Amino acid sequence: MLKTRNLLLVACIFALPVAAQAQPSTDKDRAYCGKLRELYVNYIGHDNSNASNFLRRGANDAQVASTQCQDNTAWAIPVLEQQLAANKFTLPARD
Question: Domain-by-domain residue ranges, the chain?
Answer without folding.
Answer: 25-95
